[in-house]
Fold this sequence. Notes:
The protein has 7 helices and 20 strands. The protein has helices at about 5-20, 80-90, 110-115, 140-150, 180-195, 215-220, 240-255, and strands spanning about 25, 30, 35-45, 50-60, 65-70, 100-105, 155-160, 170, 175, 200-205, 225-230, 270-275, 275-280, 285-290, 295, 300-305, 315-320, 325-330, 335, 340-345. Strand 1 (about 25) and strand 2 form a beta hairpin. The longest helix has 17 residues, at about 240-255.
Amino acid sequence: MNTLSFSALLLLLLTTSAHAQQPFTVGPVTAAPGTTASGDLTVPPRAGDQGTTIPISVINGARPGPVLALTAGVHGQEYTSILALQRLLKTADAKAITGTLILVHVANMPSFLARTIYYSPADGKNLNRVFPGKADGTLSERIAHAITQEVIARATHVIDLHCGDGNESLRPYSYWITTGKPDVAEGGRKLALAFGMDHIIIDRERPLDAAESVYLSNTAITRGKPALTTESGGMALTDEESIARIERGIAGVMKHLGMRADGPAPVAQPIMIERSEVLRSGATGIFYPAVERGHTVAQGTLVGRVTDFHGRVVEEIRAPFAGEILYVIGTPPISKGEPVAYVGTTAAAGGASR
Ligand SMILES: [Zn+2]
């Protein structure tokens, strides 16, 4: 072969490989094109804690395309998304996928195994309040750091899959975070529509600073990647309806991103929640809800009561504006400052209430 044809062949090979799917590596896990591989990210012990592992899978499609990271179990008692990803691991055919899926099966293993709500048993911190994390921080901060560095950094799009925590009776909804760059915010809006849940909370209050991103999905957004937080299920249940809704949502997003040929259509008539407010308890005691998730309330409607441990009512919590109950606490323990309910409305603040 002469030099010219050798150069031409080399060019052809280079050009071809640039358009062919490559092996994809996350931490210690590498998946060849058209295959699925699983393993653990390791968070080593430090400063007296035991460290932990973060189980992940990489489903690497046969053709190059978007890299969609799906995270479950940031809160350890939020089981529906954990089970939805277990199903996806079994049902996804890597050969049929364009692009790559990164699955984080249980982000918060200490909380999952100890069955705690909100806070890690290791350091008392809420994993979804310590992003982007710290390499030399507490265990929750190191978990966040590992997810930021190994998962979010590798992804083009991120969906953080939540549900009501073990004490939250919740109706399904997504959070659309609007604070990113305009194209990132628009990408996030399209993810919300593609996921298919009709209630979409407009969240205008997430930090803009990538070094203080606080939340997992906002860590992606502050790094220029469209992201979404979803909520389907709650009360530590594993109901089929809530799990299927997540599976459907992931399929819709994959279709939207061109990662699969077929899939459910985006939600046609979204109910955009313009204003929402978490109602908090002013006292520690026993909580008695007076509403259920999905209930419509007027301004001033009683949402719940808190009693002390001798049965005296110490607080009545009322709706600050007319709207819908997005979640309400469904178990008796309540501490001062903790959420008792979340109310939202399609009416803008100051506007007419429906
Ligand atoms: Zn959560």
